[in-house]
Amino acid sequence: MLQIKNLEAGYGKVQVLHGISMEVPKGKVVTLIGSNGAGKTTTMRAISGMIKASSGEITLSGKRIDGLESYTIAKLGLAHSPEGRRVFATMTVTDNLILGAFPRLTGSRPKGDVAGDLDRALELFPRLKERRTQLAGTLSGGEQQMLAMARAVMLNPDIVLLDEPSMGLAPILVEEVFRIIEDLKSRGVTMLLVEQFAAAALKVADYGYVLENGRISVHGPATQLRDDPAVKAAYLGGG
Ligand code: ATP
């Protein structure tokens, strides 16, 4: 589904990613683990075209996407739920969700049933359903985070990049986010997940990569990483 080869990227003269290679197979959940500043968000941004790769190859279903604009990449079926609350504050929850489907309406992929998908998204995120007529800017931070995630799902994507979906959420909402990720997984949605809760991420994921200073240091099946003493000590609270 998604293949990354020797990806290098950064900001201006600052190189953050030093040649990373990874793969997200169809229907699988892959997690990217790493300390603050390791380059996880930068990886997501380079994949979705928010920043340009300076070198390397990114392919989506066999098609090169590095160098394409992010809107074009979205039309090809890759959704990015970015870190932080990137919602349209002065639009309602429902309108934000409908906008999430917009790239597919103008792309060559099947347009599908937007109204039906909107109903399904609201079922999946009951908190958003209760607040569907509310302006997104008036939602709590956690709710905005969920809206960003639901909007990504509205693309009906082949693959979703989820960057810290549980960031800043109360524990009960963190559980809800992981329940939603499980639910998406059971529907066969391919995901690349970055999460501060590495242990929880490795539970839902099939495979994991550890990013250290812009390089992949370890990778393997999620169950194997969960038992890896070095990974445990560094990222799973030693437990
Ligand atoms: P965190 O868990 O803290 O979000 P991360 O692994 O996602 O960390 P990145 O956000 O990818 O890390 O950041 C990697 C490096 O790139 C950091 O040193 C950061 O300061 C730098 N960086 C990130 N965004 C920018 C930017 N817009 N301009 C310049 N440098 C940036």
From TrEMBL:
Regions annotated as coiled coil: none
Keywords for this protein: Amino-acid transport, ATP-binding, Cell membrane, Membrane, Nucleotide-binding, Transport
Gene Ontology BP, a term: L-amino acid transport
SUPFAM superfamilies in the cross-refs: P-loop containing nucleoside triphosphate hydrolases
Similarity-based family: Belongs to the ABC transporter superfamily.
Segments forming domain ABC transporter: 2-238
PROSITE patterns with a match to the protein in the record: ABC_TRANSPORTER_1 (PS00211), ABC_TRANSPORTER_2 (PS50893)
Protein name stated in the entry: ABC transporter ATP-binding protein
UniProt xrefs under InterPro entries: AAA+_ATPase, ABC_transporter-like_ATP-bd, ABC_transporter-like_CS, BCAA_Transport_ATP-bd_LivF, P-loop_NTPase
GO molecular function annotation: ATP binding; ATP hydrolysis activity; branched-chain amino acid transmembrane transporter activity
Organism whose genome encodes this protein: Rhodoferax lacus
Annotated Pfam families: ABC_tran
